[in-house]
Amino acid sequence: MAMNLGSPEDDEDGAMNATINTTPLVDVMLVLLIIFLITIPVVTQSVQLSLPKESNAPTQTRPENILLAVTHDGQMYWNTRRIPDIPTLVAELKKEAVKVPQPEVHIRGDENARYEAVGQVVTACQRAGIAKVGFITEPAGR
């Protein structure tokens, strides 16, 4: 901190002016205030949740389940029957969607299949009104 010590010529009485320069103190305090304002919401912004535990249940293959496969080149198969295009798939799925109980759709996508091809199958299921769609994967390490 600096002190302003005037010379006797500046003051008529010859007394010294001993005021403290508080500008650096205010600068430091403002920087600390900004740091606290930025970091406190990050620290206190957590909601107590009970997160679900990971579980890997094997699929129960039932005859009424629909098994769709997407190959690496984007071709679609209903069990082993090739589906030529998305409108045909939607029409076939609409026939199945009206059944009670509604069958589940299980999608098997090749690991080299484009995301777009698998996404089109999921969108077709949505357009047909299928309520439950799942993805079939292999366990890690195979």
Automatic annotation (TrEMBL):
Any one Gene Ontology BP term: protein transport
Subcellular location: Cell inner membrane; Cell membrane
Keyword Membrane: yes
Top-rank taxon, per record: Bacteria
Pfam families: ExbD
Ranges annotated as spanning the membrane: 25-43
Record keywords, A-Z: Cell inner membrane, Cell membrane, Membrane, Protein transport, Transmembrane, Transmembrane helix, Transport
Nucleus keyword on record: no
GO CC terms, sorted: plasma membrane
Molecular function in Gene Ontology: transmembrane transporter activity
Membrane topology: Single-pass type II membrane protein
Gene3D superfamilies: 3.30.420.270
Protein family per UniProt: Belongs to the ExbD/TolR family.
PANTHER family: BIOPOLYMER TRANSPORT PROTEIN EXBD, EXBD MEMBRANE COMPONENT OF PMF-DRIVEN MACROMOLECULE IMPORT SYSTEM
Function of the protein: Involved in the TonB-dependent energy-dependent transport of various receptor-bound substrates.
Oligomeric and partner information: The accessory proteins ExbB and ExbD seem to form a complex with TonB.
Name of the protein in question: Biopolymer transporter ExbD
Organism whose genome encodes this protein: Vitreoscilla filiformis
